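Here's what a typical entry looks like (HMG box domain-containing protein):
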Amino acid sequence: MAGVIPSSSGITPALLAAVAAKANLDASAPPAKKARKQLDLDARDERLKDLFMPKYPLTAYNFFFSVEREKILSALSKPSISSEELDAAEDDASRERAVADFLARSASDNEHRAFEKSWTDRMCAEQLGRYDPDKKRKRLHRKTHGRIGFVHLARIISSRWRALSTSGVKFYRDLAEADMARWKEATKEYRRNKALVEMGLAPEKTTILAGGVQEKAN
């Protein structure tokens, strides 16, 4: 009979229907890699919605990079400092020497140490806060005339980290260890308070804070 597939072929109408359904499903479904990426984005969005989650701890290099970035950009933004050496630098090594000279002329060793202390104190204070995806800290705009891009800046800071003294490395590692301890303690408290809310052991209208649960304002 026309239109009927012989049973000897092993292909039945039910099998054809299943194949067609599978084809339609595959056509509408995103690729596996894209699907995984979307799941990652969804998980990130869920984390960002929780504004009271403790901030993740910074590493020693995180602290160092932030301090060095501010020092370098501040030095390059000063009109009293010539940039002829940096403009003439043709490789990373010469750029690093030029930046080191800039920093040496811009302030004394004691002033640099005082800056490191004040800037890292500020970073530690900010770490005590909570995530807020709608509020990003604005960085100060410095007129560097494009004399140094981020790639060169990152390479210079990385090189300066490798050349940092033992005492300097210890300073930043101590900061990182303290921030890790802060994060562990804050995370324990956060999870404990969140559990109280989820189990109904806290008032209905509550928000999770570092110091416990607190009733939300109407």
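The chain has a mean pLDDT of 70.

More examples are in the samples folder.
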